[in-house]
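During the second half of the funding period, the structural biology subgroup turned its attention to how the target accommodates small molecules. The most pressing case was adenosine-5'-diphosphate, which had performed well in the primary screen but for which no bound structure existed. We therefore specified the complex as follows and requested a full 3D prediction, including the ligand pose.
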Amino acid sequence: MTTAVSIPRTGGGGRRTAVAASARQVTKAYGTGETRVVALDSVDVDIARGRFTAIMGPSGSGKSTLMHCLAGLDTVTSGQIWLDETEITGLKDKKLTQLRRDRIGFIFQAFNLLPTLNAIENITLPMDIAGRKPDRAWLECVVATVGLAGRLKHRPNQLSGGQQQRVAVARALAARPEIIFGDEPTGNLDSRAGAEVLGFLRRSVDELGQTIVIVTHDPVAASYADRALYLADGSIVDEMVDPTAEMVLDRMKAFDARGRVS
Ligand SMILES: Nc1ncnc2c1ncn2[C@@H]1O[C@H](COP(=O)(O)OP(=O)(O)O)[C@@H](O)[C@H]1O
Ligand SMILES: [Mg+2]
């Protein structure tokens, strides 16, 4: 059994580090006394920049909690979360809101598109709200990467589930966030549409250098990642580099068997 490998930070000079985000001794507990649940137990993890990471584990193992803590959507009970060289634990609400808006992208299981806006309007909405001008060349690149060029004037109800989620992926990519988080981003899609979305996430890492972290319980989804982390009972208990669906499935079976014995 291994624990999370530490990725060396590159030297100073204002350059971005090789680690996009990290957790140090992060514990998250809900409730108190008899109802206290430890969702994360002293988790240490480094998320590599420009890579695709999958967080795996059984239901209730702490996947969503870890993602929410890394993304500054939830507070920790103890420990630190870093986004590049900014410690986000301890940031005041206003700064944290700004950081989430400016530096992090999200893809949710429900696509969360506005029904009255067409695809391109949905894609640029966060930037419009923030008063930021989209970089045209980048936007074209993103639209091409997620294969939406012919669908930009379509409203969400004129798009398939897979296409809607691709709009949501493009929306997350458009603002060039340092890191994109997705909690079960293919959870509402059939396997074909899911494969499409995962393929585009993969391309955005390979071709656009995006850093992506998804939570999934699907071995096939995890096989698109460069690295799969495996959570059990709030701890990272294993990880795999360049996972295949078969490897992930075997590992899951091994853990389930061990869980039953102990
Ligand atoms: N808001 C909450 N209040 C109380 N317990 C919670 C809350 N959110 C999550 N939990 C508990 O924390 C543990 C981890 O949950 P979660 O991170 O959602 O797991 P996963 O995403 O792996 O299914 C579970 O035992 C869950 O019941
Ligand atoms: Mg979850």
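Two results from this model are relevant to the next phase. The longest helix spans residues 191-208. Strands lie at 19-30, 37-48, 52-56, 78-83, 86-87, 104-107, 179-183, 212-215, 227-232, 235-241.
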